[in-house]
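fold-stage: in
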Amino acid sequence: MFFAKQLHVNVAQRLRELNINIIEEESLIGKGKDYSHIGSGDVVILPAFGATVGELKEFRDKGVQMVDTTCPWVAKVGARVMGRTGFS
């Protein structure tokens, strides 16, 4: 059976090998992520846990192509929260 053995995959390492950049938090002191090197025509893959309204706006304003991999359950909760707070 396939699942009888452990499978270890370093997804981040494999993505880097494919020349895909992973943007992480600048530090633990809340500097956030640096999107300055992303420009018009670039492709941004949104993670399964979603993106902030600010991030979405920044990407839209820069003219990047967004690939949304947000988990449907996360998106559903996010839509409810956004609806209650007046964001759209």
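fold-stage: in (second)
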Amino acid sequence: MKNNGAICMVFLSAVLLGASAAPAQSLPEGLEFDRPAPKSPAEKRLEADILKLQAQLRAAAVAKDRSETAGFFADDATVTLANGPIVSKDGRVEMLMGPWLAFERMDYASQTIRALGDRGAVALVNTTPFIRPTPDKPKGIIRVMVVYRKGAASLGYHGWQVVSEIGIFIPEKSAAPGT
């Protein structure tokens, strides 16, 4: 329960760090509100580290390298899956080693990364559209908020590890009745 409160505070901090009006363009619904302020050189370096962590985590998960994949998650990491259950680091790594749908192996359509000081970051990610493997097979995206923290340089990618992920499935809008 402590993690949920911390996650909410991180999300609120991320929102307060720089949402601004977005130019009109074709974005997934609601994403136009996620426009951080211009980044400083330090924030750009932090963002580059997070992008490298994401690429290495994806490569390890695709290769089914359990040890390397586990190293990108903090020992106390929690993941709230798009369908509701909460799993620990070990549970998430197990899922990444299996054939199940996993956000970390999916293509990203868009994302923003925001620095939370020099030891924390949050990424707001939308996957590319896909067909969900459930009996009703809806098409949609997964939107995920990933929280990262920086610890000892020997951990994760240059000290960066995933602390929490919260995912939601957003189905494609159905046509209005009569159209």
